[in-house]
Amino acid sequence: MANKLICEMGLPKSTANVFSARNIITAKDALSLSEFELMELLDVGLEEVMMAVGHISEIACPPYQTALSLLEQRNHNEYLAGHLPTRLKGLDAALCGGIPFGVVTELVGPAGIGKTQFCLKLALLASLPTSHGGLGGRVIYIDVESKFSSRRMIEMGLSSFPEIFNMEGMAQEMAGRILVLQPASLSEFTESLQKIKISLLQHDVKLVIIDSMTALASGEYSQGPPRLGWHISFIKSLAEFCRIPIVVTNQVRSQVRDEASRYVFQGQSRSDTVEDPSKFDYHLVAALGIHWAHAVSIRLVLESRSGQRLIKITKSSISPTVAFSFRINASGILLLNNEGEEMTGPEANTIHCQDHSGIINYDREALQ
Amino acid sequence: MEVSSLPISASHRGKLISAGYTSLSSLSSLSPSRLAQDLKISENEAVGILKVASGRSGLDKIENGSHAIVNGAQTAWDMLHEEEYSACISTSCSDLDEILGGGIHCREVTEIGGVPGIGKTQLGIQLAVNAQIPADYGGLGGKAVYIDTEGSFMVERVSQIAEACAQDLLEYDSLMRRDSQACHVDKQSKSFLDNIFYFRICTYTEQIAVINYLEKFILEHKDVKVVIIDSITFHFRQDFEDMALRTRLLSGMALKLMKLAKKFNLAVVLLNQVTTKYLEGSFQLTLALGDSWAHAATNRIILYWNGNERYAYIDKSPSLPSASAPYAVTSRGIMLNSQSPFIVSSAYFVVFFYPVNQPRKHNRHKKGQ
């Protein structure tokens, strides 16, 4: 509502005319100036300016809702109360029903851990007909790393929902609902995002997957942090206004202790920090930085620890930090148990990567 | 005092100066009709100018009476009394309340920042619920305004926290052997939800608009005791090229919020993100929006990980010593960290292990393949 026209706000005619004469057309123009600047520019008294600014603000301000009405609206209007179930019982319970609509969910993990597998499964679930617990809609799959495999997806479908996929033509229909985009660069990606925005609502798209965000950002820039500011807000608003879940994957990179892996808050003396020898090893961190991390609402970390693959919720405003061990089979990701292990502190924040073969690994315990 | 400092329109000012009225004293013994004649303006406008001028010169006058030496001023003694009566909103974590001197204070602007996932939004939601604890239970019995700029407000989570809070109230009732007076958990938690006014803000213009509008909104919806902005940063961090404009808008906003907090006796809580800053050869974490913004809030609280625990640290406060205290985030909301003994230290180090985007020199994890 920032671009609402001032002349349509029902201000007294004389005031509205003064605003338009000074080329202050929208609420954005008016509110970017202070009251005194406006007085100077419009040549009217303080009272009149205050009145006008108050009026413009009131109209430009979006209406409020109470939390109660918001909750009721969600529960009544939305299928499955606004969640895409992952069909992993423990994870669904921890997430209050699955991947929530309207926010960005991120999957972080080392290469080969199963991020793409998870994405493929989610794409499949969203395209399932509602009678079988899916969302019955189209899926847009932005495959940056060219890892999308239709064969693997149909294999997952065949083994997890044989009753549907063995029906004639169903596999074709399911797969036909998943649209795969393979942008080669950030600019191409930007372009396709903008196109998606229009088609989302028209074509009943129920899920957007971006695999991966990191490849996009780092492919373009060899030096310095990628500038993703615009993309972050765009993806967030896309999720929110179409009320669909958006799932994004993020890679990890390793960080060495002396390479500024330790940050202190400004103003605190650095020499005071206690050296902790156990932190001298490599550790993995999510590849996109802190700015991006602020933007995602739910972060799921996939990691491996002592031969066990784990999926854990590390950022979520609804769920506690819990980890579930999983394995991957023909039907996709399977949880080994549905009762998660609650995590605290550094355990919750680190990303472990232990090579499955056990020959090369970066795990601290194994090195010693 | 000069005429040029008066808050009147530019044309009036120009006319005053060209007619020879440059100082306020030249206006003090003037009738409106005379001024109207001199400036060739209507009498009403002249009255307006004189009103503004006399209001201004009142600042310089010394009046009788012990209190009003200067118009609009308060003695420190009166302020002390007022501070004693000013209420607090509990954070639900007694350690944290203790270092904060009872909780988040009304009549003040408090900024809370921290790394992603530390619990900023959680704390915001908790405060929105806690501001509504009825007066019988030692709360404020108020309402809350939640301004969401990021879209991170999860209504399911709010209902979880509200339910937990309602249960606590019920428990308190039974402890005090009081008859449970219409305090039904379900009903209570519903009323908690009903009294959170939620604004979803999508651009910085809307953010300014909502802050301008709040004054009127709070007059209409009485008893608002807390205003939470989650987060103040988001729209000002993306796509903002004109840094001078950004600083100006932010400081204007801060002033308005400060005024709001004083006028309606409510607490304003601003949530802020963190960013990295290159300082003296090393990267350090700092709250976003830069140095001039750092002056804006009265209190500044930083949330950080300290080993296993979440800690809150008072970074800036005019009245409280710097201290830190652990807290926990559970399914029932913010809570006392029961695992650790209470530690207060005036010089606690805030150490972070957090990634920042840097040139990607190391790709070790890929070599492991």
From TrEMBL, chain A:
Q: Where found, per UniProt?
A: Nucleus
Q: Which GO terms describe its cellular component?
A: Rad51B-Rad51C-Rad51D-XRCC2 complex; replication fork
Q: Single Gene Ontology BP term?
A: double-strand break repair via homologous recombination
Q: Name one GO molecular function term.
A: single-stranded DNA binding
Pfam families named in the record: HHH_XRCC3_RpoA (PF26169), Rad51 (PF08423)
Major subcellular location class: nucleus
Say yes or no: keyword Membrane present: no
Family annotation (InterPro entries): AAA+_ATPase, DNA_recomb/repair_RecA-like, HHH_XRCC3_RAD51B, P-loop_NTPase, Rad51_C, RAD51B, RecA_ATP-bd
Which terms are listed as keywords in the entry? ATP-binding, DNA damage, DNA recombination, DNA repair, DNA-binding, Nucleotide-binding, Nucleus
Task: Please list the residue ranges annotated as the RecA family profile domain.
Answer: 80-252
Family membership: Belongs to the RecA family. RAD51 subfamily.
Entry protein name: DNA repair family protein
UniProtKB/TrEMBL annotation, chain B:
Q: Which Pfam families match?
A: Rad51
Localization: Nucleus
Which residue intervals define the domain RecA family profile in the entry?
85-274
Gene Ontology molecular function: ATP binding; ATP-dependent DNA damage sensor activity; crossover junction DNA endonuclease activity; four-way junction DNA binding
Gene Ontology biological process terms, A to Z: meiotic DNA recombinase assembly; reciprocal meiotic recombination
Report the principal subcellular site. nucleus
GO CC terms for this protein?
Rad51B-Rad51C-Rad51D-XRCC2 complex; Rad51C-XRCC3 complex; replication fork
- Alphabetic keyword roster: ATP-binding, DNA damage, DNA recombination, DNA repair, DNA-binding, Nucleotide-binding, Nucleus
Q: Which CDD domains does the entry mention?
A: Rad51C
Domain of life of the source:
Eukaryota
Summarizing the function annotation, the protein's role is: Involved in the homologous recombination repair (HRR) pathway of double-stranded DNA breaks arising during DNA replication or induced by DNA-damaging agents.
Q: Known PANTHER family for this protein?
A: DNA REPAIR PROTEIN RAD51 HOMOLOG 3, DNA REPAIR PROTEIN RAD51 HOMOLOG 3 RAD51C
Record's family?
Belongs to the RecA family. RAD51 subfamily.
Q: What is this protein called?
A: DNA repair protein RAD51 homolog 3
